[in-house]
């Protein structure tokens, strides 16, 4: 699903964006703006990870969530402003390519979900020391809906669906970092077993160049990986609250608040393909 599918009548306007300001100004310095876009994403990603890990109950646990938020908030704002401004400028210089891109649709959905989570969910929850207000609950539902739509486009679009493994890898690492004790050990053993099984299936049982056979195998493994990661996350999610206000919803917001930005970054990586 592309923006052309959604808004087919604006193609002439989109095509002309690269010929007028600011697109015509950005084109000769495209690489510079791309670097600024990536740097903004790094700043945003690092800040979002630290803030949302605190909501999950990991990371900077020696400080209350509100203090973590206060220290990270300027960096989060700078990152969001940076990716939006540089993204708009880059987009005007490359508008026709993005207009036809499934990956761009995913990135925009994840960007919208990320902004909703940052300012409507994770930020307010952290400010309230983990308490989840009615507004944060509405934001959580809205953000999850938009993000899951983006994931659906990611998973069902030809050429870019391998990018889902980027999101799965990030989710696997987050859960591994957050899990404790026996859960972490069992979870890690399961992950390693799945990785080994996928390697055998895609390198020994099926020829690496037999894409017709590899695609369903990789899709099956993606589903199994997702189920294993989700299962471990749910175990962690429903463990003892530890006195943290908000509890499960706050931790759910933390997980999702990280993965929405990972999805945006991963989709950007695949714009060149479709």
Automatic annotation (TrEMBL):
Highest taxon of the lineage: Bacteria
DUF6644 domain residues: 35-147
Spans traversing the lipid bilayer: 30-51, 72-91, 103-122, 134-154, 160-178, 185-205, 220-240, 252-272
Keywords, alphabetical: Membrane, Transmembrane, Transmembrane helix
Record bears the keyword Transmembrane helix: yes
The protein, known as: DUF6644 domain-containing protein
Annotated source species: Phenylobacterium hankyongense
Lineage of the species this protein comes from: Bacteria, Pseudomonadati, Pseudomonadota, Alphaproteobacteria, Caulobacterales
């Amino acid at each position: 699903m592309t923006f052309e599918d959604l808004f087919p009548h604006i193609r002439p306007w989109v095509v002309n964006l690269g010929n007028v300001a600011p697109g015509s100004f950005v084109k000769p310095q495209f690489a510079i703006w791309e670097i600024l876009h990536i740097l903004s994403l790094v700043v945003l990603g690092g800040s979002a990870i630290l803030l949302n890990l605190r909501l999950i109950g990991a990371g900077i646990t020696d400080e209350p969530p509100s203090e973590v938020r206060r220290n990270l908030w300027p960096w989060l704002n700078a990152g969001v402003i940076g990716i939006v401004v540089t993204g708009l400028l880059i987009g005007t210089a490359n508008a026709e390519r993005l207009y036809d891109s499934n990956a761009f649709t995913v990135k925009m959905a994840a960007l919208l979900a990320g902004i909703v989570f940052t300012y409507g969910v994770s930020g307010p929850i952290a400010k309230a020391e983990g308490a989840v207000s009615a507004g944060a609950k509405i934001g959580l539902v809205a953000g999850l809906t938009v993000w899951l739509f983006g994931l659906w486009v990611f998973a069902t679009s030809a050429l870019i669906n391998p990018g889902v493994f980027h999101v799965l890898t990030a989710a696997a690492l987050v859960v591994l970092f957050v899990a404790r004790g026996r859960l972490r050990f069992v979870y890690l053993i399961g992950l390693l077993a799945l990785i080994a099984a996928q390697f055998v299936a895609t390198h020994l049982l099926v020829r690496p160049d037999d894409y017709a056979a590899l695609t369903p195998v990789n899709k099956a493994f993606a589903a199994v990986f997702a189920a294993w990661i989700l299962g471990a996350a749910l175990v962690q999610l429903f463990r003892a609250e530890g006195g943290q206000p908000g509890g499960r919803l706050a931790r759910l917001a933390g997980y999702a608040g990280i993965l929405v930005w990972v999805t945006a970054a991963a989709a950007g990586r695949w714009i060149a393909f479709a």
